[in-house]
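Bug #77: duplicate submission created two jobs. Keeping one. Sequence:
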Amino acid sequence: MKPSLRRVSFNASVQHGQDVFPARNRRFVLHARVTFAQVKPEDIEDSARLFGEGIIPAARAEEGFRGALFLVRDDGTVMAIDLADSLDHLRANEKHGLYQAAVAKFRSRIVGHPHREFFRVAVSKGIQGGVELLEDAS
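Kept job's structure:
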C-alpha cells in the first residue's frame, strides 16, 4: 500500500538571518505549493536534473519567488515544493501557464496524475540563505 503524503513539514527562510514571522500578529509571509507525483524509479535522477536545470531558472523569474525544493524517494515518489511570498504570487504563475508548462516537462516521466496543494509556512527555521542558496557555489 502506498503511504499517504498528506502532511508536509520543512524548513525555509525568506532571507539569510531573517525570521519569517518578525512579529506575532503579522500575516504569514511565506507560502508553499507542494506538487505530489510518482515518477518511474529509473527517472528519479533525470527528473531531479530537469527540476534543477529547467524548472528553477523559470521559477526564479516569477514575482514573489523565494525558493524551491525537490524531494525524492527511491520508489519514485517526489514532491516539488515552490516557495513564494504570497499565495497570490503562486496562483499568478498558474494563471500565466508557467506551472502547467513545468508539469508538462515531466509528462513522460510521471506515472499517474500529479496533484498539488497549497500551504502557508507556519515555522521556518534551519535553512538559511533563501534565494542565494540557488546560486552555484562553484
